[in-house]
Design goal:
- The protein has a single domain, classed as 3-Layer(aba) Sandwich (Rossmann fold), CATH 3.40.50.1820.
- Helices cover 36% and strands 21% of the residues.
- The protein is built from eleven helices and eight strands.
Length: 311
C-alpha cells in the first residue's frame, strides 16, 4: 500500500519536468527551447501550489490509458461507499480535463474539484491528461482526449459507471478539449455528454494570443508576454489550414453537437472572455446555456484556493 501511494505521487514528476527534458534532449527550435527553460519554474510552482492536497490525500488512484499517441496518465476519483451497502450501483461518469496553455498543466490541478464532485454527487470522476506542445501540435491533444473518453466508455463496466450518464468539462484549453470530445461522439452517432462545465474555456484559436482583445482591467504589461509564442505553437503551427475547423474552434459549432446543459464560469480580466460571451450568445435559446461572470477574476483564479473574488 505504501509503495502504491509513493508511486502515485512520484508519477507526476515527468510531467512537471517535461520542459527541462525537452530543452536538453529535443531538437526543437532554439527559441522554443529557451522559452521552455523559462516555463520550467512555472511548472514547479504550479506543482508546489497543489502539493499539500496531493501529498496528504489518497482519494484517487493513478491509471494509464492507451491512446493512438501512447499511454496517458489519468486520475480516478471514486465516491465513498457505504460499508453497509452491498448493492452494485452503476454511477455517473464525469471527465475533467486540465488547462495549461497546451504546454503544461497537471490533472492534480483539479484535485479539490474532482474530490468534491465525486463525494457530493456519487459520480466516478476521471481527470485526464494529454500530449503537450511544442513537441506536439494540433490535433494530437484532441486525439488523446477523444481516445481516452472512448476507452472509458468502452470499459464502463470496469469503472462501475453507466456510459449513458456522462458529463464532461475542464478549464482553459481543457474546456476546448471537452467540447471536442462531445463533437467526436456526435460524429460517431453516439450520445453526446449530458452536461458541460468549464472555467474560462479557450473556444477560438483563429487569432494568436497577443491578437486577442484585452478586457478592461487587464495589465498593461503582460507578465507572461515572453511565453505567448510558446502558447501559440499547438494551434498556430498550421493555423491557416484550420481556420474553419470547428474541432479546434468550438465557437463555430452547431448546437446539435454539444451537451444539452452547459455552464461557463468566466473571468472578467481575461483575454478569453470575449470568445466565451460570443459562444454563449450563439447558443442562447437552444438548450440550457449559462455563463457566470466573476468580474474581478483572472485566468486561473479557480486554482487559487484562498482567493476570494467578487462576482
Amino acid at each position: 500500500m505504501a509503495l502504491q501511494y509513493l508511486q502515485a505521487k512520484l508519477s507526476l514528476l515527468p510531467r512537471v519536468f517535461s520542459p527541462l527534458f525537452d530543452v536538453i534532449f529535443s531538437t526543437l527550435p532554439f527559441n522554443q527551447r529557451m522559452r521552455l527553460l523559462l516555463l520550467q519554474p512555472l511548472n514547479i510552482i504550479a506543482a508546489l501550489l497543489c502539493a499539500p492536497q496531493v501529498l496528504f490525500t489518497n482519494r484517487y488512484s493513478v491509471i494509464y490509458i492507451p491512446t493512438r499517441n501512447g499511454r496517458r496518465r489519468c486520475l480516478v476519483f471514486e465516491p465513498p461507499r457505504s460499508a453497509s451497502s452491498k448493492q452494485i450501483i452503476l454511477r455517473p461518469l464525469h471527465i475533467d480535463i486540465h488547462g495549461g496553455a497546451w504546454v503544461g498543466g497537471l490533472p492534480e490541478q483539479s484535485l479539490r474539484w474532482c474530490t468534491l464532485l465525486s463525494a457530493s454527487t456519487g459520480a466516478v470522476v476521471v481527470s485526464i491528461t494529454y500530449s503537450i506542445a511544442p513537441r506536439h501540435v494540433y490535433p494530437t491533444a484532441h486525439d488523446d482526449a477523444d481516445d481516452i473518453a472512448a476507452y472509458l466508455l468502452a470499459h464502463a463496466e470496469d469503472f462501475g459507471v453507466d456510459p449513458r450518464l456522462l458529463t464532461i468539462g475542464g478549464s482553459s484549453v481543457g474546456g476546448n478539449l471537452a467540447l471536442s470530445v462531445s463533437q467526436g461522439f456526435y460524429r460517431q452517432g453516439k450520445d453526446v455528454p449530458l452536461a458541460f462545465v468549464a472555467w474560462y474555456p479557450a473556444l477560438c484559436f483563429r487569432a494568436a494570443p497577443w491578437e486577442k482583445r484585452k478586457p478592461e482591467g487587464f495589465p498593461k504589461s503582460d507578465p507572461l508576454a515572453v511565453l505567448l509564442p510558446l502558447f501559440d505553437v499547438y494551434a498556430g503551427a498550421n493555423r491557416a489550414e484550420h481556420l474553419g475547423d470547428a474541432r479546434l474552434h468550438p465557437v463555430l459549432w452547431g448546437r446539435e453537437t454539444l451537451p444539452r446543459d452547459m455552464l461557463l464560469v468566466s473571468a472578467g480580466v481575461d483575454v478569453l472572455l470575449e470568445e466565451g460571451v460570443e459562444f454563449v450568445e450563439k447558443m442562447e435559446g437552444e438548450g440550457r446555456v449559462e455563463m457566470i461572470l466573476v468580474k474581478k477574476g483572472f485566468h486561473g483564479f479557480m486554482e487559487c484556493k484562498h482567493l476570494v473574488m467578487c462576482r
